[in-house]
Amino acid sequence: MKSWKQWPYWLRGGVIGGGVALLTIIATPVFCSSPNIVCVFFEIPILPIYPLLALLFPFFDSFSLELHHSYFSFFSTVVMISWFIVGSILGALIGYIKKSPPKRAL
């Protein structure tokens, strides 16, 4: 297997994006057993897809950002895939910028 340095930038970005989402999904039930200010930081990865979920799924509680427990795995998967895609796009952009030749002044 190739080392981290040999991975393409889009894959590195996707792994970082998905990893951050996974960590917040794991940490949310641990630190947010009761509503407090710490919960706001763990809900940040949810915010980009929150309007879409609120429109598509009527069981989504739009006032408290809470999801019924039976849909938690589906919701977690959607969040992780979304952030993997966002990270991949950002990684591809960084790779494109790093590969482009420097412009010479005339």
Outline:
This protein is an all-alpha fold and 106 residues long. It has helices spanning 9-31, 37-42, 50-56, 72-99.
Describe this structure in words.
- It is a single chain.
- The chain is mainly alpha-helical and 106 residues long.
- 60% of the residues lie in helices and 0% in strands.
- α1 packs antiparallel against α4 (72-99).
- The longest helix is centred in the last third of the chain and has 28 residues, at 72-99.
- The termini are far apart.
- The model has no long low-confidence stretch (mean pLDDT 77).
Largest sheet: none
Task: Give the tally of structural domains.
Answer: 1
User: pLDDT average, as an integer?
Assistant: 77
Beta-strand percentage?
A: under 5%
Shape: elongated
Low-confidence stretches: none
Number of helical stretches of at least 4 residues? 4
Question: What letter string, H or E per element, gives the SSE order?
Answer: HHHH
The helix-and-strand class reads mainly alpha
Helix content: 55-70%
Supply database-style keywords.
106 residues; mainly alpha; 4 helices; 0% strand; elongated
Give the topology.
Blueprint: H1 9-31, H2 37-42, H3 50-56, H4 72-99
Helix pairs in contact: 1-4
